[in-house]
Specification:
The complex is a heterodimer of chains A (174) and B (354). By secondary structure, chain A is mainly α. Chain A is elongated. In chain A, strand 1 and strand 2 form a beta hairpin. In chain A, helix 7 packs antiparallel against helix 8. Chain A has a two-stranded antiparallel sheet with strand order 1-2. The longest helix of chain A has 21 residues. The two termini of chain B are 29 Å apart. Chain B has 12 helices and 10 strands. With 354 residues, chain B is α+β, with helices and mostly antiparallel strands. An 8-stranded antiparallel sheet of chain B has the order 2-3-4-5-1-8-10-9, with helices on one face. In chain B, strands 6-7 form a two-stranded antiparallel ribbon. The longest helix of chain B is centred in the C-terminal third of the chain and has 47 residues. Classes of the chains: A mainly alpha (174), B alpha+beta (354). At the A-B interface, helix 2, helix 6 and helix 7 of A face helix 5, strand 6 and strand 7 of B.
C-alpha cells in the first residue's frame, strides 16, 4: 500500500484516529507522518514518560469539552517563560516555576493520576516557608480543638484555643 | 593523570563500606530535585541563563562547604567524552546530565557519596549514595545538604504544590529514594515477576541499575518510590523501607529453599561461572554481569572464600564499556572490549586469591 499523503513511499504507519467520535483511518509513511507532526509512539525518540503524561492531559480535555483542545486552552500560556499550555501538553514538562501558577486549574487531574494527591505535605524550606509551618500547626490544633469540644473536654479545649490565638498573633506580627 | 579525582578509581570510597544487609542490598540512593525560583528550568533556559544557574549553585556549594565538607566542582564540558561516561557508569551523574544538558556540572564530595548535579532536568539534583540498606541515612544526609544549600539559594517552592520541578512526576517533595537489590534466587525460581508487579501496586517502581529505561543486568534491580506529592518524605522512606525488608526476606527464603532442594545444581552453576570468569578469554558485558551475579551468590552462601563483595561491586563498574577504555587507555571495538573485560576480571579474581 502506498502512503495516502505522498503516493510515493510505501505506507508504514497504519492508525485510527477518533476525533469527536468520528473515525478516520490513516495509512502513511513515516516521513509524511513527521511532516504532519503526528505523535506516534515508538517513533522519533521513542515513547517517553512525558508522552504518557501528555496523554493524561489529552484525556482530561476530551472528557470536559467536545473539541479536543479548545482555542482558549491553546492560548493559555505562562507569562513568565512564555510556554503555552499546548506545548506543556505535548512535552509534559514545565518551563519555569510560574507555569504552575498559570496552569494551576488545569493540572489537578494530572497530579491526581500520577501521585494520588495534589497537595504537598512534606518538607518546607526554612526560609519563606515559615508561614506554611504556622498554618499547618494552627490547622492541626484547630482540629484537635474540635475533637476536645465534641468530647466535652472544655478545659483542654480552652488551652488549645489560647495556643491557637498565640500562634495567630505571632504570625501576624512577623 | 586527570585533574579530577573521580577517574582514578572504579570504586568510590563510599562503596568500600558494607552497610546493613549488604549481601542482598548493594546500595541505597536518595535524590532530591530542586530549582531556583528566579530562572527558567533547564528545558527552556537560554545558554546564558543556564550558565547563571551553574554559577549560582557552584557558588552556594562553595559557601556551604563548612557543612558539606570538601567538594570538587566538575563542569562537564571540560571533560572528555569518556570521562563523562565514566561518571555515568559510577552512577555519580545521570545519562541525561552527561549527554543532553547544557552548562552541566556536578559537585562531588571526596568519597563520592554525595553528588550535586547542576542543570539536569531540574536546576539542582542532590544525590546521596550509600552502601547496603541505608535509605534513611541517605535521606538524612540529602536533606541536610538541601538545608545547607537553601541558606544561599532561593528555591522554587509553593505552599500547595511543594518544591516545583520541571516534570510533574517529581513535584512536591522532589524525592526519589531507591535501593539496588541483588535478587538471583527470586529470578531463578521465577518469582521475580510476581514480586515486581506487587511492588508496582504499592506506588513503587522497578528499573535497571542505570535508571529510567535501563535494563536489569546481573539480577540487579533498582526499586524506588513513584509518588512525590501528597506523601511526606518520612512516609516515602518508610514505605520503601518496609517493602524492601519484605523483599530481602523473600530472597533469603528463596535462597535457602534453592540450597535445600537443589544444592548440587546451584553449586554447579556458581562454580561454573566462577570457572568461566577466572579462565575465559572473551566475555561480553551481559554475560559478565550474569556470571558475577552467580559468583556473588556463591560468596554469600560461603562457597567461595576470600573474595570480598566490594571486589564484585568494583568489577561491576570496571567492566562497563567506558571504564574499560579508561583503564586500558585505548579506543576499542566491541570484540576488543570483550577481550579486555575477560582479562581484567581474570586478573582481579586471581589476584584476590593470592
Amino acid at each position: 500500500m502506498l502512503c495516502q499523503e505522498c503516493q510515493q513511499r510505501p505506507a508504514t504507519l497504519h492508525f485510527t484516529k477518533i476525533i469527536n467520535g468520528e473515525k478516520n483511518e490513516f495509512h502513511i509513511c513515516e516521513q509524511c507522518a513527521r511532516e504532519k507532526g503526528e505523535m506516534i509512539p515508538g517513533t522519533s525518540g521513542g515513547f517517553s514518560i512525558h508522552n504518557l503524561l501528555s496523554g493524561f492531559l489529552d484525556f482530561d480535555m476530551a472528557g470536559k469539552t467536545h473539541t479536543g483542545g479548545t482555542p482558549q486552552a491553546q492560548q493559555l500560556h505562562c507569562e513568565e517563560c512564555g510556554m503555552t499550555y499546548a506545548q506543556f501538553r505535548k512535552i509534559g514538562r514545565f518551563g519555569c516555576s510560574s507555569c504552575y501558577k498559570y496552569f494551576d486549574d488545569k493540572i489537578d487531574p494530572l497530579l491526581k493520576r500520577v501521585h494520588g494527591g495534589t497537595v504537598h505535605v512534606g518538607k518546607v524550606p526554612k526560609r519563606g516557608g515559615a508561614d506554611l509551618q504556622f498554618q499547618r500547626e494552627i490547622d492541626a490544633l484547630k482540629q484537635e480543638l474540635q475533637e476536645r469540644i465534641e468530647k466535652q473536654e472544655f478545659e483542654t479545649a480552652a488551652q488549645l484555643r489560647d495556643r491557637i490565638r498565640d500562634l495567630e498573633l505571632q504570625r501576624s506580627q512577623r | 593523570m586527570s585533574e579530577f579525582a573521580f577517574t582514578e578509581h572504579a570504586l568510590s570510597t563510599w562503596m568500600r563500606g558494607e552497610g546493613q544487609d549488604s549481601d542482598i542490598v548493594i546500595s541505597s540512593r536518595v535524590r532530591i530535585a530542586r530549582n531556583l525560583r528566579s530562572l527558567p528550568f533547564p528545558l527552556v533556559a537560554s545558554e546564558e541563563q543556564a550558565g547563571q544557574v551553574r554559577e549560582l549553585v557552584i557558588e552556594a556549594a562553595e559557601q556551604a562547604k563548612e557543612d558539606l565538607g570538601p567538594m570538587q566542582s566538575v563542569p562537564l564540558d571540560e571533560l572528555s567524552e569518556i570521562d563523562r561516561q565514566v561518571l555515568v557508569e559510577k552512577r555519580l551523574v545521570s545519562p541525561m546530565l552527561a549527554n543532553e544538558s547544557q552548562e552541566a556540572a556536578v559537585v562531588l564530595s571526596e568519597d563520592e557519596s554525595l553528588s550535586i548535579m547542576v542543570n539536569e532536568e531540574d536546576h539542582i539534583r542532590i544525590q546521596c549514595l550509600y552502601p547496603g540498606f541505608q535509605v534513611r541515612q541517605a535521606w538524612e544526609r540529602a536533606t541536610a545538604v538541601d538545608d545547607s544549600l537553601e541558606a544561599y539559594i532561593d528555591y522554587a517552592f509553593d505552599d500547595r504544590r511543594g518544591y516545583l520541578t520541571s516534570c510533574p512526576t517529581n513535584v512536591g517533595t522532589g524525592l526519589r529514594a531507591s535501593v539496588m537489590i541483588h535478587m538471583p534466587a527470586l529470578v531463578m525460581t521465577h518469582q521475580i515477576g510476581r514480586i515486581l508487579s506487587a511492588v508496582s501496586q504499592v506506588g513503587l517502581t522497578v528499573r535497571g541499575i542505570y535508571g529510567e529505561g535501563s535494563e536489569a543486568q546481573g539480577n540487579l534491580f533498582q526499586i524506588s518510590n513513584q509518588i512525590t506529592l501528597g506523601q511526606s518524605e518520612k512516609e516515602i522512606v518508610d514505605n520503601l523501607e518496609g517493602i524492601v525488608v519484605q523483599i530481602i526476606e523473600y530472597e533469603r527464603q528463596a535462597r535457602s529453599r534453592l540450597v535445600g532442594e537443589s544444592k548440587i545444581r546451584l553449586y554447579d552453576r556458581v562454580m561454573r561461572s566462577y570457572g568461566i570468569l577466572t579462565h575465559a578469554a572473551i566475555i561480553d558485558g551481559k554475560e559478565a554481569a550474569q556470571r558475577l551475579s552467580d559468583v556473588r551468590l556463591g560468596v554469600d552462601l560461603g562457597w567461595i572464600d576470600g573474595l570480598p563483595t566490594t571486589l564484585l561491586n568494583e568489577l561491576t563498574i570496571l567492566t562497563q564499556p567506558h571504564f574499560l577504555q579508561k583503564t586500558f587507555g585505548a579506543t576499542m571495538n566491541t570484540s576488543e572490549k570483550d577481550m579486555y573485560r575477560a582479562q581484567l576480571i581474570r586478573d582481579r579474581l586471581v589476584k584476590s586469591k593470592e
